Amino acid sequence: MRGKRFWAVLLTGLCAASITAGIEGWVLLPALVLAVLCVWLVSELAVEGFEGVCLGLGLSVYVAGVASSFASNLPEVVLACLTALSPHLSEVPAVMVMLAAAFNSVLLSLLIILVTWDRGYIAVPSAALTVEAEAMRMGAVMSTLYALVGLLVKSTGGATPTLPREAAVFPLVAYAVYALLLQRRESVERRDVRMGRAFADALIGVLGILVSSEVISRAAEAWVADAGLNPVFAATILAFTASVPEHAVAIVGARKGKLEMGLSNLISGIVQSILLVFPLVALISLVVLDGFVIYQLIASAAILWLVEKAITDDKRLTLDEGVFMVLTSVLGILLLDELSLMI
After folding, report:
1. Residue 118: CB atoms within 10 Å
2. 177-230 tens-digit pLDDT
3. Domains defined along the chain, listed by start
4. 297 vs 310: CA distance, rounded Å
5. How far apart are CA 175 and CA 316, in angstroms?
6. Which candidate, 10, 84, 21, 8, places its Cα nearest to that of 219?
7. What distance in Å separates the CA atoms of residue 128 and residue 320, rounded to the nearest whole number?
């Protein structure tokens, strides 16, 4: 473990140095490779650290996955907020955030397929059956209401529809209630763990995820700018790169036998994109409810409904559900890119 900490700190430092030096020209590709290596290495430390801290505090492994999801979502939050403030990228952040939820759905589906291929099914954790399911229903309803506002204004031929900033407060309140209920329902007996070491691993992991994600995001932004991509395709690239840390945490957790942590990381990541990140973007910058955003709101509601039904219908996740979820999620992403060529 000491060797992993050393390499994690070293790679994080090199990523920070590349940010200081500037990620452009010939530096772009080496910096990107370095950042990808860093994010995978520090994700392993983050998984171990969050698990130790949560168990030491009397919280379940599922909560540890939610906490790691929040930490790995920080780059997405930062990138979305920064692009929302940019006058040249104002169309990107809202679509980018909801695309990140779609990418999480794709990875969740692939994780289900890989695990159930031999095991037959995955028993759904109790927290996913209660708090997560309720949060997903709330997210689906709010996304549908937002889309209806845009559709009604467009159908009446009124002014360009925008999402009222006060409407973004309600998902944030819903997420705060979700986090509180999750903490209360998932308390377990405290375990004897080395809290200092666990906290250090979690801190190194979070810092490494943030720094390496910044490198990945800057490299993607530079490539998007050089290629002159349209806003929707640019949002797709940025959403995928911003979700790389979360994917790494989930896959590493599952590979190390912590399947519950991997599942909670991805499920809560979908919820966070809709109930936390998107409302923050709407508070910072006015979200125009154009065709792309309306489509993604409807698609996000459908994804939330699909995942919620998968985990509540029989309290297990099966191979066929994983296959149907990945097909639906990929179709939604491809149709959005095709839509960008039609409108």
Report:
1. 7
2. 887 777 666 555 556 667 778 788 888 877 887 787 777 767 767 776 676 666
3. 2-186+193-342 (1.20.1420.30)
4. 20
5. 25
6. 21
7. 19
